[in-house]
Amino acid sequence: MKLSFRWYGENDKISLEYIRQIPNMYSVVTAVYDTPVGEVWSRESIARLKKLTEDAGLAFEVIESLPVHEDIKLGKETRDRYIENYCENIRRLSEAGIKCICYNFMPVFDWTRTQLDHVLPDGSTSLVYYKEQVDAVNPMNSDSDLTLPGWDASYTREELSTVVAEYNKMTEEQLWDNLKYFLERVIPVAAECDVNMAIHEDDPCWSIFGIPRIITDEKNLDRFLSLVDDPHNGLTFCIGSLGCSGKNDVVKMAYKYAKMGRIHFAHLRNIQLLDGGFEERAHYSPCGSLDMFEIVKALHKGGFTGYVRPDHGRMIWGETGRAGYGLFDRALGAAYINGLFEAVEKMDK
Ligand SMILES: [Mn+2]
Known about the structure:
Blueprint: E1 2-6, H1 16-20, E2 27-30, H2 43-55, E3 59-64, H3 70-74, H4 79-95, E4 100-104, E5 115-119, E6 125-130, H5 131-135, H6 157-168, H7 172-193, E7 196-200, H8 218-227, E8 233-238, H9 239-242, H10 250-259, E9 263-268, E10 270-274, E11 277-281, H11 292-301, E12 307-310, H12 328-347
Parallel strand pairs: 1-2, 1-12, 2-3, 3-4, 4-7, 7-8, 8-9, 9-12
Antiparallel strand pairs: 5-6, 6-11, 10-11
The structure holds manganese (II) ion.
């Protein structure tokens, strides 16, 4: 496995120097943040990221994310222009040495949580999702003061209502059609450039506000992989996203998709399942509902050799900053991930 760490570019308060000091750190996972969604990333911006990263002694091989414009997900007539831009971004990133691109196909909301600083019993804080709080929010009601922390602030309340209404009219099958249309045009370009596309599961892995969500479980991941049956059409296997449904057998899926050679990137994080939702927890298995050892063992047994990053961490030791993306707890997670991989690899010998 190639250990990596998400870095939000030059505005990230966590320096590349600090990231490099985490044992076994191989690469950063980053993106161009100066360009609106759907437009082509400039070669200068890509080159700058590459130079900063490589000068710090880290590899520049993974992008998270290359976002998909809403018109593509909605299947609008304007989508072809955005898909052409998307393909151009793949070509440019490939020229710069990128080997893996993470993206998602979640309508509007991306990841959703109800609170970003929930205090855990040990005084650390983490992101949580309580279903009853989500159910109390109506994004269609423009008078409502209620809002959720992950919402895209670039939408006004009215714009949000409009786009949610558009998705409310859409069936899951239509969203599948739009995803297929996108993949059929993008994957051949990725294959030509030898870049692995890695879709991130919906987080959480169920429908919210009546909006379709499809990258949610084993049946749908099977369907996704068969839409374009090419190894470049693969997964970001995010165990925290899949694991928020107790119905997903994450250990089984880890082995199955690794064996198929379709996991290009793994997000490792632990969550505690609750009756009405979940809480993000420390990475160590006993702190949550996921058996991290069994998951890593399954990935290894399946022949996984891709990129791994500690996904969200808690805020600990007084650190402040971007929720889920502090240095300390993610570094602890990285050290734990190193230990698990070392153990399963040596047990094999
Ligand atoms: Mn993830």
